[in-house]
Amino acid sequence: LTQSALKPLLASASMGLVLIILRNLLPVEIYSIWVLIAIGIAVYVASILMLVGYSIVDDAKKGAKALLSR
Question: What's the pTM value of the predicted model, to 2 decimals?
């Protein structure tokens, strides 16, 4: 359980750190929010892929298939 929770926690922490740094660098505008959201998604996905590997893609497909088949 700790192994399966540790990797998403590390990915979330790295995303949060990047977003905190960028929040201070970007101007206060509505477009900055969209930029932060896009960068946050990209950082989280890249972190998960580096930590877990591409097996996460297969797991996501299986989960989506199970949810949509109901």
Answer: 0.78
